[in-house]
Amino acid sequence: MFSAARPIYPVAGIRTIEHKLIPSARPSLMERAGRAAAEDAVRLIMDRPGPILIACGPGNNGGDGFVMARQLAQAGREVIVAFADDPATLPGDAAKAHADYLAAGGTIVSDLPAAPANGWALVVDALFGIGLRRPVQGRFAAWIDTLNAQPAPRMALDVPSGLDADTGQPLGTTFRASHTTTFIALKPGLLTHDGPDYCGEVSVQRLDLDAPAWLPATGHAVSPALFRNQLRPRPRNTHKGIYGDAGILGGNAGMVGAALLAGRSALWLGTGRVYVGLLDEHGPAVDFAHPELMLRRANQLPEKLSALAIGPGLGIQPASAAILTAALAREIPLLLDADALNLIGANPALQATLAARRAPSVLTPHPAEAARMLGTDTASVQRDRLQAALEIARRHRALVVLKGYGSIIAAPDGRWFINGTGHPGMASAGMGDVLTGLVVGLLAQGWPPESALIAAVHLHGAAADRLAREGIGPIGLTASETIDAARGVFNGWLIEAQRENQRELQRSPQRDLHPGLVLGGR
């Protein structure tokens, strides 16, 4: 559970690593990649009979396919390779892979053959890989359409052809894989935007390389290892004052539920006290479902809070802007969501105030809110989610999570993370409010802001995943249901962290103990 977070590299980073290694790598990186792909293919279709079709393109991705074909044929599988270009135009390593395949007895056809009577055991996309920056056209587009129509497992090498490896944006006709074997490290486009829908199950083959040793990674896949140090058991001698006072500001007329959802999720995550400040003058004085929440008017929250969130159900009226201005002046960790972000996006003075804050700021936009903050449109944000998140973080000197599948967390210093938990059932009202409460709850309990944001985003999705496994959703899942599940997942993390700490103690040599202590002694 607490294995190290996996690095993610954009294409430029992968190219840098390759250029450092290619001259000296023995066996070559292409040979390693093709062999690793063949091994993945064998595992994927172990008991599936029939021939394997590999479509090879005019570059190094095609070279990987030739090596894969040779390895599979030598393992006794029937392989058919489709390759339509002039071998003389192949890059050096790919040309060698092509020649080696032919020398081993392989054959090549110049067009995709008709499927055999019992179908293909596997079809493999080795057409373009990570280097593609324009839509696939002509013959190759037709090939991809044909491959996508096959009922067999569909495997992509490195990245499905037609998918932008940096953004997850489909560039026209795109191969839709059931399995992707990617090389050296993860790429952003596999994890966010439309990438997961085209990649299927992703296997990372490191090719016997330690990529960060050659180029330190600025991006990582979110895992509990990133916040494990914060998962500590509470002392027995304790009281609620130790675990912070969280404030939630929002709940304008017709939107009180948003603020209550945020307050409840902060409370369920162990915050000592949670105050909910409502702008609705006719709002409730008590949450009868959860009377532990302390409801106030928006201008009556305590001065001494450990952390504050503003935005759920806030509205964009002048009173909302005044409340936001006052919140920005507080010298405590501050989370901005929903209409707080819309107000920021429309007001340069508020933007300047936000960027000048000395206390930590956390922003949680969805793509439309991110577009307003950047002065662009939602489609532009989605075309390059990573760069959009990084720009918001840089511009506002804040931690940012750009929500959506493959939520991207960006720090103002240029580091970034992509989260993989969650499912489509989370596209429902109130989910963002629950996330707000999870983040501000951890902030109030003293978690470092970056750890709090990463953990809350991961927890939010993990809670929804647990419910889906239990038959609750994905379709029809409600935000309220994720709150209790998040509490369960979080406590499970704490238990597992304690168990791992115990295992580490048991593995430690006894000589490291104080000489006066004897385990099990009397």
Brief overview, please?
This protein is of the alpha/beta class.
CATH topology of the largest domain: UDP-N-acetylmuramoyl-L-alanine:D-glutamate ligase
The level of helicity is 25-40%
Quickly give the CATH architecture of the largest domain. 3-Layer(aba) Sandwich
Tally of discrete structural domains = 2
Q: For this structure, what is the CATH class of the largest domain?
A: Alpha Beta
What can you see in these coordinates?
There is one protein chain. The protein has 522 residues and is an alpha/beta fold. It is built from 17 helices and 18 strands. The strands form two sheets. It has an eleven-stranded mixed sheet with strand order 1-9-18-17-16-15-14-13-10-11-12, sandwiched between helices. It has a seven-stranded parallel sheet with strand order 4-3-2-5-6-7-8, with helices on both faces. Helix 2 (29-44) crosses helix 3.
